[in-house]
Amino acid sequence: MIPPGQDGASLEAEAISFTYPSAERAALHEVSLNLEPGQLGCLMGRTGAGKSTLSLCLNGIIPAMQAGEFKGIVRIGADSISAQPVHEIARRVGLLFQDFETQLLCSDVESEVAFGLENAQMPREQMQQRVTEMLELVGLNDLRGRDPATLSGGQKQRLALAAVLAPAPQVIILDEPTTDLDPLGKRELMEVCAQLRDDGITMLMADHEAGRAIGADHLTVLDEGEVAFAGPGDELLSDPDRLRELGTRPLEMPALFAALGLAERPLTPERAAAILSARGWRVDEEAYARLADEDARTDDLGHTLISADEVSYAYPEGGAQALRGVSLRIREGEFVAILGENGSGKTTLAKHLNGLLRPDAGQVTVCGMHTRGARPRQLAHEVGYLFQNPDHQIFAGRVDEEIAFGPRNLGVSEAELRSRVRQVLALVNLEGYEGKDPFVLTKGERQRVALASVLAARPRIIVFDEPTTGLDGPEQEQMMRLLRGLNEAGQTIIFITHCTWAAAEYARRAIVMDEGRIVADVTPRELFGDAGLLAETGQVPPAVAQFSQALDGKALLSIREALRCLRAPTAEGEG
Amino acid sequence: MAGSLYRQGASPAHARHPVAKLVALPVLFVPPLAFNEPAYAAGALLLSLLMVALSRGLPNVRRVGALCLILIIFSTLIWALMLPGHEHTWALGPVGASATSVAYGFAMGMRLVALVMVGVAFVSSTRAEEFTYALRRAGMPPTASLALSLAFRLVPTLAETAQTVTQAQTSRGLDLREGGLLTRLKRYVPLIVPILGYAMRSADDLSRALEARGLGAATRERTEFHEYAWSAADTVLVVVTVLLAAGCIWARLAGHGELVARL
Predict the structure, then answer these.
(1) Is the dihedral of CA B100, B106, B111, B112 positive or negative?
(2) I need a labelling partner for A271 at 20 to 30 A (CA). Which of A207, A211, B20, B153 fits?
(3) Subunit contact A354:B174, Cβ cutoff 8 A
(4) How far apart, in whole angstroms, are the C-alpha atoms of residue B119 and residue B121?
(5) Which DSSP state fits A353?
(6) Closest among A226, A183, A191, A190 to A205, alpha carbons compared
(7) What is the mean pLDDT of residues A402-422?
């Protein structure tokens, strides 16, 4: 599969420092990193810690194409590359960008893979063989004539990887490669990476998810541009508190064992279940039954706010049939997660719930209004919509102006506006940010500004499209807690997510979509406790649910639930 | 969802050599440019639609339908009133129209639409890589030809972003149809700022992606993944289109298809 001569080389970064022009502090300060040939390294850290900047330094884009102050040396094997042009370095170091779609340049799959080979002046026959090998490696050989724009997110990501691999680099750097992928897409990409590792390619993977570092040869954690941890991954992964301090959501199993007061720190659900099972731990039937009773509670829900009946929709100009006869009811006070693979119709459905899209067939009613006849402004009063990327909506030069935009459009008075801005800034923990320029804030802060601007309009329902994407672990948890707080205060929340732990731990209802249809509309416990349904819908349960299934055939959805329900044999522990 | 106009599949136009298509493109502009008499202009329009059909591009006609309608309506109106040197049959002060000016305007609308359709036929059957290849064969430097074809790629991406941004602001109660001209213009600011920001980031990301995939090395020479063989059909395409264009020019010079003595 991998041609001769593509053996991995060592990757060494020696005391790399970089400061962006007019930045107050260095993005990287004396960062060193060393991977032996064929090793897998993992790079973690909170948003803004310097992961992407370091990735750009390792393939020469910094300093060659980015202004700023650079110091340090990058070596591939014995050669220093820092002074070489990027296109020369590209032959030895492949970089899969965080926003992989910008890396796709061509109008069909095979041309995309061939692009780098054409630049390297590879003869056509050799190139055709190489393209076929790469497409086989990433499982896209059947799609070689397709336009990359028509592929799913996971397929695009694998195509971008094939294109990076084609010129046979000795080192591959993957900058948050799984961010936008559904669970199936993540699994497929990781399988390809595992094969590359077997083939001896040196790889460095930057990621937010601690699980990605399990089994890595080396883990580096950056914090504010400096190395906060460097060493074997498993050591840090076993320490939930330290991981949280460093801006990463801890693995659930070590966190559970720490909370149970047990000494072991198993990293995987299988191992955790094996340890507790051997000691006779069980899920308490009564406590578990109480959870199921709580799941079934509907007395705190109000009347129906949204109803969709047999909704079908196809994108114009011969676009895909995105919805096929979808029906659902959303009641006041619900907290609903919409799950499904990339391209299954989640966002299309969500955009029907506030009239951004109108059904081709069937009808959607929001607070008594048919969306087909209602004006967007009328619907904006009732339904707020938070887009995945806050940069698609932020335009004002000040945070308070940005937040006031929505309610001002809806006719709220200036005095009332000022009061609302203060209130929502407090709600999203951004007090004192009124006069700041939104464009200089971190992604997590911008996401909260966008949320505040939706909250300030006081809609009865808020739809969130991937509220945790692009945020680091603590920011993700903060965002989900914020959503729960809003829901507990009576807000109806609908969120699209690939993050199964967020759906399991926070939602009270899970809708799973596949090829434009709702294939499951159940409680999260019913979804993550049903192996058949999970297999059918391509969903992967969170670690704690996998663990409780393996231990006792039950679906616990959070560490909090596990602490409520796990029982030690009388002689052991305080579970 | 916005997307590229290229239509995947096999058609007589898809099968032609990129250089033959690049030569035929400007030559096929000649028939609509040659005549301003409505019946001839209609003939040129029909010919261009035939080209679109041969390129499997008819579904794209719907995508540019609104533009074509605007071209015909505005062209008819403006030329009906503004055609110089004709006698007004209906006059209102200094402006007026005649059967000739209306016919000229309508013909001009059809000619413009025919030009658009020739372009639609080309982009429906020509991948960006083929376009780049043809430009390089025509002597354009590799990076310049690539930049031109990438610009085509960015148009649908930018259109998609513009659509998302518009949806995001609409969901915050923005209504572009309200108020006077100045108010409406001001209402575009919440759209323009995020779209421009995206465009600038995209351009930056794209230049990095190109370099990271070894493009800098290609300022000298690139090899080609796709093989484009010149066939007899390509020669036929070039010869027939050139003869057709020459015929149109000859016909016009002989006084055919001329409603008024101007382009």
Answers:
(1) positive
(2) A207
(3) no
(4) 5
(5) T
(6) A190
(7) 91
In this prediction, residues A421-443 reach a mean pLDDT of 88
**Which two tokens mark A296?**
């079934």
- B206 vs A contacts (CB less than 8 Å): 102, 105
- Tell me which chain B residue has its CA closest to the CA of residue A132: B225
CB-based contacts of A7, cutoff 8 Å, min separation 6: A37, A38, A170, A200
Give chain A's domain count.
2
Q: How large is the C-alpha radius of gyration of chain A?
A: 25
Q: Can you give the CATH number for the domain in which A53 is found?
A: 3.40.50.300
Judged by CB atoms closer than 8 Å, whether chains meet at B208 and A394 is answered as no
- Tell the burial category of B15 from Cβ atoms under 10 Å away from its Cβ (0-12, 13-18, 19+): exposed
* B197 contact residues in A (CB cutoff 8 A): 391, 439
Pair A289, A561: CB distance under 8 Å: no
What is the mean pLDDT of the segment spanning A108-127? 90
Does B194 contact chain A (CB < 8 Å)?
A: yes
Q: CA-CA distance, A208 to A473, in Å (whole number)?
A: 7
The tokens of B90 are what? 């209906």
> How far away is chain B from the Cα of A129, in angstroms, using its nearest Cα?
11
Cα A99 from Cα A56, distance rounded (Å): 13
What integer pLDDT is reported at residue A4 of this predicted model? 46
The count of other CB atoms within 10 Å of the CB of residue B262 is 10
Nearest to A157 by CA among A193, A200, A198, A203: A193
- Tell me which residue has tokens 């465009």: B199
Domain presence at residue A222: yes
Do the Cβ atoms of B168 and A65 come within 8 Å?
no
pLDDT at residue A205 in the model: 94
Q: Do A356 and B170 touch (CB under 8 A)?
A: yes
DSSP strand pairing (A202-206 vs B95-97): unpaired
Measured between CA atoms, the residue of chain B closest to residue A108 is B127
pLDDT at A421: 94
Q: Kindly report the pTM of this predicted structure.
A: 0.81
Residues of A in contact with B224 (CB under 8 A): 118, 124
Tell me whether residues A117 and B128 touch, CB distance under 8 A: no
Q: Is B182's Cβ below 8 Å from some Cβ in A? A: no
Is residue B18 predicted with pLDDT exceeding 50?
A: yes
Task: Judge whether A412 lies within some domain.
Answer: yes
Taking each helix axis from N to C end, the angle separating B142-170 and B128-137, rounded to the nearest 10 degrees, works out to 150
Chain A residue with CA closest to B3: the answer is: A149
CB–CB of A147 and B212 under 8 A? no
Report yes or no on A572 lying in a domain: no
Of B1, B4, B129, the CB nearest to A315: B1
Task: Return the residue in A58, A105, A144, A447 with the most chain B beta carbons within 10 A, the one to mutate for interface testing.
Answer: A105
Interface touch B175/A385, C-beta < 8 Å: no
Give the model confidence (pLDDT) of A6-65 as tens digits.
Answer: 567 899 999 999 999 978 899 999 999 999 999 999 999 988 899 999 999 999 999 988
What are the residue ranges spanned by the domains of chain B?
1-5+16-126+229-263, 128-226
Q: Please judge whether A356 and B214 are an interchain contact, meaning their C-beta atoms are less than 8 angstroms apart.
A: no
What backbone phi and psi angles, to 5 degrees, belong to A511?
-110, 125
- Domain assignment present for residue A425? The answer is yes
Is residue A571 very low, low, confident or very high in pLDDT (cuts 50, 70, 90)? low
pLDDT digits (tens, 9 = 90+) for B210-224: 888 887 755 567 788
Range of the domain at A67: 11-237
Alpha-carbon span A165 to A163, nearest angstrom: 5
**Chain B CB contacts of A164 below 8 Å:** 213
Say which of A107, A111, A457 has its CB closest to residue B173. A457
